[in-house]
Amino acid sequence: MKESYKRFYYNDIQSIVLQRTGTHLAWSFVWGALALLFGLIAWLVPGTPTVSLIFLGVFVMALLANIAMGPTCRVYLQTAVQLQKISALRRERSANKAINRIKALVEEKQGQWKNQDDPRTQKAAPDAVSHRVPHFPRHPAAMSQEEPQGPFKPLLHRILFALFLTMGALGGLQILLKSLTIGLFETLLHGAVQVMVIVALVRWYRHLKGTLIAKLNWIALVFVAIQTAIGYAMYFAVSFRNPEINYHHWAMFKLMFELQMTDHPLALAGNIFYAGGSLLLGVFGMLMVQRYAAGHEAAPGASQ
What we know:
Blueprint: E1 15-20, H1 23-44, H2 49-69, E2 73-78, E3 83-85, H3 92-110, H4 119-124, E4 128-131, H5 155-177, H6 180-203, H7 205-208, H8 212-241, H9 249-260, H10 265-298
Antiparallel strand pairs: 1-2, 1-4, 2-3
Helix pairs in contact: 1-2, 1-8, 1-10, 5-6, 5-10, 6-8, 8-9, 8-10
């Protein structure tokens, strides 16, 4: 076992800052999506309900546990020379208990503390709850980092999540119509999303690091990567079974489309998961971008 720690004197502590985050929402999305997937498999795929129901139960329990633990947060301890993140405090309920204990001990050395709603703090970080903050002009994590250059522009993320909404709508329509034209359009959209998700993540990484939008961006990247991997697997399956058309791309595409649109329950479950996941990412992404952009415009130059 290895343990490392830092020691702080109660006389040196200037403020304790709790910054609410949306990590619990991202985990709820992940556990809920997995539970939905295995629920659909248990319902639609004959012969394997027991295993699917076991996984369904595990992911439902994880979802309920995440909800029961409550909202997530970051906690910072500020002194005259540094701002230290308290990594062990990640849930707001336990963090508030720890803050109250620390606050009581600090008050024995420094006198009575009280919550301060510093206008500058609330303008730059409206989700921050701070105790005795004499100077706190921006988001705690940004105090030890170089300020990102230029204002955040949400256009790339709005395009990205709009593409997800479009893919989700087309995916739902495709389940009903099984149209080759829609399938071709979906493939083109998937290629565009692959590019946009990487560009949006890299272009605004410094502005969005640690925010819910960044986490959704990473989830979107994993989601797209899974779909791409499935597409390659289907390509190789069709290629090995039909070597005579390896260089006929249109014929390959039609065979892959027929494989994807079969009436097999597993294919149907995959299509539902693809369409539903795209819609959820699009809706959550649009909401988070709108919320972040509104807060960023209210505090120019501040990084949330």
